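Handoff note, outgoing to incoming analyst
You'll be picking up this chain. Sequence as last confirmed:
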Amino acid sequence: MKTKQEATNLAKCMKKLGELAGIETVCVLTNMNEPLGYNVGNTLEIIEAVECLKNNMPEDVREIVYKLGAQMIKLAGKGEDINENILKIEENLQNGKAYQKFLELVTNQGGDISYFQDTQKFGKAKYVIPVLSSEDGIIENIDAEMVGSISVYVGAGRMKKEDKIDNLAGIVLNKKSGDFVKVGEPLAYVHTNDETKAKGAVENLKNAFKITNKKIKKQNIVLGIIK
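Most recent structure output, in case you need it:
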């Protein structure tokens, strides 16, 4: 949804559908003005998710995990107090149980957990190219839609249904909103196996970053909860 009001209207509709089905429903509105976390692309996102389960997660991901997770625990009848539920999530990340449960689930489905014990086994795209800043300043915002489109262009998604997805392709952000950047410092890295698309992707991705000299206020990640 392009606006908070559109998202709120959709959330209310989804909540009503849930209630008509006899299911208690809670909707959490989250900010999509920039990519969540740092990695965009199939394998890159898996690697970041594994790190999150090991409690090495970006703050924007952490906020959403805690706020959504706390609501899920309540809806499952495992805890009425949201703050206590957040502490439960935090505890199970810190003690390693979240990561171990993930490995157990993968094993039960016949998966190879060695890839999650050593994510270097996934390999990397042939070309990993930095997107360098041409100015000093503070990242005001990152165009999430543009980042998504460029990741598709370099192979991480399909431009048409016949296209084959390159699991190693994507984008890794090096800076997020509110971060300071110097001239020549990497804003992001483009991962692709298609050299012909690399140069255009780098130039376009640079335009996804809006840089200012003014101090900016960090945007809220969770915008509201519809109960």
